[in-house]
Write a structure and sequence with these properties.
The protein has twelve helices and 15 strands. It is an alpha/beta fold. Strands 1, 8, 11, 12 and 13 form a five-stranded mixed beta sheet that branches. The chain has a four-stranded mixed beta sheet with strand order 6-5-4-7, sandwiched between helices. Strands 2-3 form a two-stranded antiparallel ribbon. A hairpin with an 8-residue loop joins strand 2 and strand 3. Helix 7 runs antiparallel to helix 8.
Length: 361
């Protein structure tokens, strides 16, 4: 992986400890610098009322670091990041995670999902061309990607269908990102490739051979090279995965709460190993590199030991965020049910005393 190797040599790299829950909660923690019990996102659904099923988590339920920087005047771009639908009109360009969602039929190829794109008008038609649907990825493409010449050597239909969906999502986000990075002026750009997670989940759950896994790594490295070549030379690159998969001696995969963080660019020490990294340190480090005041609600401090010039950004209490108030202790179950629903936690004494128990319901 030559592009990844060059990136790590020029900057810092190391393992990072994730948070629990590691799925949606980990992704939101990465983008906010807050623990799940602070930002309150534990799942991609949120309780809406006592009698209705949960609704989807949207960008209104949390505030990523690039939104906060945009409020300070930075030009921010986001493409494909989970839980960012509907697209925001407060950013320079916003392409929500629904942009790359799979379409059921080919006729939706150039029909963008509703409210999934907010970009300058001259780029709307270009983004329609960027969107790829799984039905376009035929057997010839899959044989070339997997490095097989005979159709009999291809995986079963179930695995092929999952591969198509994941690859179409990855290509859609990559194509849209390349267009926006090249055509617009920006300060912060956040790219989310959820299709890569799906790709490796398919790889692990179906016990795919190492030859196919190598193709995935080649794809990732090629995408990284395209993005670095298109971006300005003075950009600081953060390549982050808040979780990963581990493989035992029997070549079986298991999810891991340990991820990776690569940071490279102006202001970052070259060829540095990140010791004791945590996913909650990434957002405050981005703030520090931008020279902005850090949100007091962030759980950890910036990793100034990885920077050539140690910034001393102030910590502001008035930064708009979803963090808890000073001195307030928020337990995980306090935010599991919201919007009119309340989860009551009773002690044995309360249940035994009729007067105390009456106040619970």
């Amino acid at each position: 992986m030559p592009h990844l190797e060059a990136l790590t040599t020029a900057g810092a790299m190391g393992k990072v400890q994730g948070v629990r829950p590691a799925g949606v909660g980990g992704i939101v923690s990465l983008a906010t610098g807050q623990a799940p019990c602070d930002h309150g996102v534990f799942h991609d659904l949120k309780a809406s009322s006592p009698h209705l099923p949960g609704r989807e988590i949207t960008r209104e339920d949390w505030l990523p670091v690039w939104d906060q920087l945009a409020a300070r005047g930075d030009r921010s771009i986001e493409v494909g990041w989970p839980l960012t639908h509907p697209a925001s009109d407060h950013l320079t360009a916003s392409v929500s995670d629904r942009f790359s969602w799979p379409a059921r039929t080919r006729q939706y190829r150039f029909c963008l999902p509703k409210d999934s794109v907010v970009v300058p008008e001259q780029l709307e038609e270009v983004l329609r061309e960027c969107r790829v649907v799984s039905s376009e990825l035929g057997l010839d493409f899959l044989k070339g990607f997997l490095g097989v010449s005979d159709e009999d050597d291809l995986p079963d239909e179930n695995r092929l269908a999952r591969l198509r969906v994941a690859l179409a999502s990855i290509q859609s986000v990559q194509a849209a990102a390349l267009v926006l990075i090249e055509e617009l002026e920006w300060d912060v750009c956040a790219l989310g490739f959820d299709g890569l997670r799906r790709l490796f989940e398919v790889s692990c759950r179906h016990e795919m051979p190492f030859a196919e896994k190598d193709r995935f790594y080649e794809l990732l490295d090629g995408m990284l090279g395209e993005l670095i070549e298109t971006a300005p030379a003075d950009v600081v690159v953060h390549l982050v995965s808040p979780s990963s998969f581990r493989m035992d001696q029997g070549e079986r995969c298991f999810p891991s709460n340990e991820g990776i963080w690569v940071m490279s660019g102006p202001g970052v020490k070259p060829d540095e190993l990140i010791h004791g990294g945590h996913v909650l340190e990434i957002a405050p480090t981005i703030w520090a590199l931008r020279g902005e005041a850090i949100d007091a609600g962030m759980a950890r401090s910036a990793r100034v030991d990885l920077l050539t010039e140690i910034p001393l950004p102030e910590v502001r209490e008035d930064v708009e965020s979803h963090s808890m108030k000073a001195g307030e202790r928020v337990l995980p179950w306090d935010r599991l049910l919201v919007d009119g629903r309340t989860l009551h936690v009773a002690t044995p004494r309360q249940l035994q005393d009729p007067k105390l128990a009456a106040g619970l319901f």
